[in-house]
Fold:
Amino acid sequence: MFVVCPKCGTKNNIPDSLDATKRYRCGKCKTVFTNIPDLDNEGKPNNVSNSELPIGLATFLIMGPLPKLMEKDTLGKMYITFGRVITLSCWLFEMGAVLGRFWIKKIPIAVKMFEVESKQGTFTQYWSEQARNRLQLYRKQPKTFPVFILETYMEWFTQKKFEDMEFKELIKLMNGELYHDEAQRMLRLAETFVIEGIMFGSIYPELTYAMLVNQYEKIDMASWEEARRYGVTLSEKPPLQSVAEKEKEALALARDYVSQYHPQLLSDLGLT
Structure:
């Protein structure tokens, strides 16, 4: 059985006896990822049940919004646009950052949800470095999460500076249709954004809070309009939500997940 690394595309051969939905480390680039189950014709993961299929936090989070982001072509085949994958990545990173800020002194406990004990130190170091690298790549103080993730994602994907890209080129990329295998690969990559977001929120708690304020309270209209222009925000108007309400939303989702899959961590993560 093969699982495909979302970062470098390498096919990793694993024994058929192992659960293909658990976390794996790519043998080539060492990226740690969760293999997302196949989607059915309605854009929902196949064969998901609490008892039979343990899933990661990111997979749990996307099971709600993912079907709404999937579309059907004229032949009835399901696809997701590249822009919607970025929208999902933005949301996952933001949710992770909110949780990371809340878990700032509990990261070693939170990491238990993602990696076996013997590898937790390396895991934390790697994803913390990814969060720092993203901020360094941005080259300026980020104002909101959608624009921050949009610009850094596109620079990584195209290997060009965002300001050097033409609007038509970006829109063409955003509207690109991703079908089964390619969609699975990009969605697996999107999953990693919640982990990186958790590290970002724990490393930069003050910046995280400032970005949330800009996004939900003292709305930075220029940032919101840019996000809307590129389709990485689904709301037609700036969201009317306080930072406290956003934190409450993220913690409620985390509590639902942890209570089902890691109940022994509920108290230690402050979710009781």
